[in-house]
């Protein structure tokens, strides 16, 4: 398949960016709340991680993203068009479909996801490949998938059970709890409709329009707040092994890494209030915000990531680790047990059959190893053992992570024990 070469090339180039963490980082983080010197150690470790990246540079012509001509904004299910356009929990994909960078009906092939996310946002082709293939396996029909709900445009195929659900229907598999602006499924009954109070909370963290910048120093504490809200408000909160540990951080870091407007002055990007509102389809003034479903827009005169500075899997893992250093609770797989404030973490050693444990998860490359291997091991059993087309796509997924894994010398995680999930009502159905 065409995309495999692009993926392998991207990995060879960037896998060395993954960096090790200081020993016992989690204990550090746990102490840091009360201990200023531990706090400084964490900040230094995070700063060191970030400093290892070279400055991205800026080239206006290459980074400008057109919103004109064939890329003009057209909302879903607009008057005088066919109905049935799909939009869902991901504002980035919704905006791409509204501007013709993905098919307007919200259904795309793996290759279209890889190309579109690269062209509009500068997502690394390794990450685009991984996410695109994962979607085809988990919510699609091996070829393509819907960014919203099920649709006749994604008919089921042999080898997969049931009708493909689309991204909106992939709770605990792809979509998860404690999202930035989207609700917890078992709290609100849907996975994709913006909760204005959640958007407002984020917005209000940078109240001055002249200086507002929703970067990771804003988004990571916001994630901690949202995580705590799920514990306090959703009796069925479940921090799932893949949707919680790997996708939840992406839902936060993507906001700054992708939506930020890059410039010569700010090559890493600035994400101001207007750009944030545009990508999240929010209008009106603070205190009276309105969300219009499916109207996510790429702003006029907006610039993507620099060429050569793509947001790759290793880059993403660095951000994931930095957030976990500051808030080790993000690594707790587990959930509430049917009442609020009953969060219980699973025994990590038991979960991974002795390969990893929580105390050393942030040491060395353990976390990267767990995330990369766990992403595959936590797929439904029906897919894992499969042969034929499913098996072929699964090996594609494996090859996307193989380059990064080779560099890390990981202890091998080839079996997991899902028994402990039975105690979490919010995990029902997913495993
Ligand atoms: C093929 C690529 C992609 C896939 C498969 C994907 C998938 C997802 C999924 C499953 C969610 C729901 C996560 C949750 O429950 O919290 C999500 C949310 C999100 N995605 Fe994407 N995404 C992709 C690309 C992008 C891009 C390019 C952006 C660029 C800005 C983006 C930005 C976001 C944001 C900000 C959220 C959180 C929304 C919220 O709750 O406020 N994603 N995405
Ligand atoms: C992005 O930054 C450039 C350079 O500062 C600016 O001219 C442009 O208006 C900005 N775009 C948006 C959408 O804010």
TrEMBL record:
Pfam families registered for this protein in UniProt: Peroxidase_2 (PF01328)
Keyword Heme appears in the UniProt entry: yes
SUPFAM superfamilies: Cloroperoxidase (SSF47571)
Assigned keywords, A-Z: Heme, Iron, Metal-binding, Oxidoreductase, Peroxidase, Signal
Secretion signal, residue range per the UniProt entry: 1-20
Residue stretches making up the Heme haloperoxidase family profile domain: 69-322
Domain of life assignment: Eukaryota
Transmembrane regions: none
MF terms (GO), sorted A to Z: metal ion binding; peroxidase activity
UniProt cofactor(s): heme b
Family (UniProt): Belongs to the chloroperoxidase family.
UniProt protein name: Heme haloperoxidase family profile domain-containing protein
Organism: Cadophora malorum
